[in-house]
Design a protein that fits this description.
Number of helices: 7
Distance between the termini: 48 Å
Low-confidence stretches: 108-113, 149-153
Oligomer: single chain
Order of helices and strands: EHEHEHEEHHHH
Largest sheet: 5 strands, mixed
Number of strands: 5
Length: 200
């Protein structure tokens, strides 16, 4: 059994010492043995398969343990987080997330779309939105770019989330839950989807 800890460091969250301490205390409490730390310095916008996380998952197998300080540190996209949870479940890798008190060993978790995941989605998405907002504001401010929402006919606040929304729909996530995640109404979500169909 290998025990790995993955910590993604964004451009603004540089301090990993508290994360490491929390992980070591957790591993000692769970008697998981020696922990090997893998750190990745990136914003998380890349596909996890093309990052250190993807390479790490490729080297891990059934019975190995992966610890993360929180699920939002896996990636900036809720869909990628769900995919990583599914990959670990399918490969028999035991995934622990300390902040949420989450693990994928519950026998009731038969797919990424489960009540357990639903319970975590809203909390994770709030953290991701906050993180993405801070990183984007910092980057734009550094570039001297004027901030503000796009204006004009046909523009929607859901436009930037199109890929994630379509992936969640393909995973079978109810539209009411998707609408709640992106702070809109179910009616607005249906209108957005209809506009996508018309423009396709």
């Amino acid at each position: 059994m290998k025990t790995k800890a993955f910590i993604r460091v964004s451009t603004i969250l540089q301090d990993t010492e508290k994360n490491k301490l929390d992980i070591l205390q957790f591993a000692n409490r769970m008697q998981l043995g020696q922990v090997d730390f893998i750190e990745e310095h990136c914003s998380g916008c890349k596909d996890y398969k093309k990052r250190k996380l993807g390479a790490l998952l490729d080297t891990m197998g059934k019975g190995d343990v992966l610890i993360v300080p929180e699920l939002s540190r896996i990636a900036r996209s809720i869909t990628q987080i769900l995919e990583v949870i599914k990959v670990t479940k399918d490969k028999g890798i035991i995934l622990y997330s300390i902040k949420e008190g989450f693990d994928n060993t519950d026998n009731s978790i038969t797919s990424t779309v489960t009540s357990t995941i639903f319970a975590l989605v809203a909390q994770i998405e709030r953290e991701l939105i906050s993180l993405r907002t801070r990183e984007a504001l910092q980057a734009r401010k550094a570039q001297g770019i004027k901030l503000g929402r796009p204006t004009g006919k046909g523009k929607s606040k859901l436009d930037e989330h199109t890929e994630d929304i379509m992936k969640l729909i393909s995973l079978g996530v109810p539209k009411t839950l998707i609408a709640k995640q992106y702070n809109t109404t179910t009616g607005n979500l249906y209108n957005f989807l209809n506009q996508l169909k018309e423009s396709a």
